[in-house]
Amino acid sequence: MGKVALVVGASGIVGNATAGLLAQEGWTVFGLARHSAIQRGITPIAADLRNQADLTAALAGVKPDAVFIATWSRQANEAENIRVNGAMVRNLLDVLRPAGSVGHVALVTGLKHYLGPFEAYGKGILPQTPFREDQGRLEVENFYYAQEDAVFAAATRDGFGWSVHRPHTMIGKAVGNAMNMGTTLAVYATICRETGRPFRFPGSAVQWNCLTDMTDARLLARHLLWATTTPAACDQAFNVVNGDVFRWKWMWCRIADWFGIEPAPFDGTVLPLETQMAEDAPLWRDIAARRGLSETDISRLASPWHTDADLGRPIEVVTDMGKSRRLGFTAYQSTDDAFFDLFEQLRADRLIP
Q1: pLDDT in tens, 171-215
Q2: What is the pTM of this model?
Q3: 144 in active site
Q4: Is 218:182 a contact under the CB 8 Å cutoff?
Q5: Is 123 a catalytic residue?
Q6: Where would a tag sit more exposed on the chain, N or C end, judged by fewer CB atoms within 10 A?
Q7: What is the CATH number of domain 176-213+245-318+330-348?
Q8: Which class in CATH covers the domain with range 4-167?
Q9: Catalytic residue among 114, 144, 145, 188
Q10: What is the SS3 assignment for 22?
């Protein structure tokens, strides 16, 4: 019998890439999501992680060897983020416990582990860059920590191995995703090209000028599989980035060139995308109708608030991956090519013209 995987959040950026890779590698893959359609070759499971009874019914007979948790639920404040997202992980692992099949749980969080939660993002005393896994937790409540604690407690109780994966900003395809910089920038660039609006960098001078990095969802999927199948990676937390660094003053021009537009000069003023795109829903419906696009609802493609949080940071963000390299993970992905691959896929799927 082949290995069985349960990918939680299978319709999202990370879950979609992970489920696809596992299926390609010969795993039997169950993809759990609340509503969205799952890609071909994956057995879909519709369930709400907040409802244990719903989960119990949906997962009856599912006995995964490995569980990949790549989802969260955005709430009104961090206290609610902690309560809800911690409970979601606990509910899942409690429901899977009776089968006794789980050998490894891989949890995807992110760099808010080092930068703080939304309510205190990039504020206070932060660890020096590049961020390293041994820098530990900030002295602030954080729903990532609640998710980790739920995994650690269940692992101690049930005897499975675990890994925690902390990507930087993700590049990958998903529709209806709450944190989606790549597609947000594609939509913004399309609007600028269609209307003649200036393609203006929305963030801070620090992000424009300083070094940074990002994470391709395909590379993260490979890292998840590697950690699940590599004994030395068991019970470890890892940073996961592409392996290159860049400045947005360079990347912004690369993205503009792909869309055939000129980047507007940057004068150091922050002009958030949430402000620039606030009234663009009718405009996008018109573009979608005229160009025969498959998604007319801009809110299912673009998440300006999240892109603004990343591009507006007043601090440098660079991530160290030495821990993974020392243990044998050597995959690399150039970030500009990751953007271009995504844009090509969005075009092929008629999500942008």
Answers
A1: 999 888 878 999 999 999 999 999 999 999 999 999 999 999 999
A2: 0.95
A3: yes
A4: no
A5: no
A6: N
A7: 3.40.50.720
A8: alpha beta
A9: 144
A10: helix
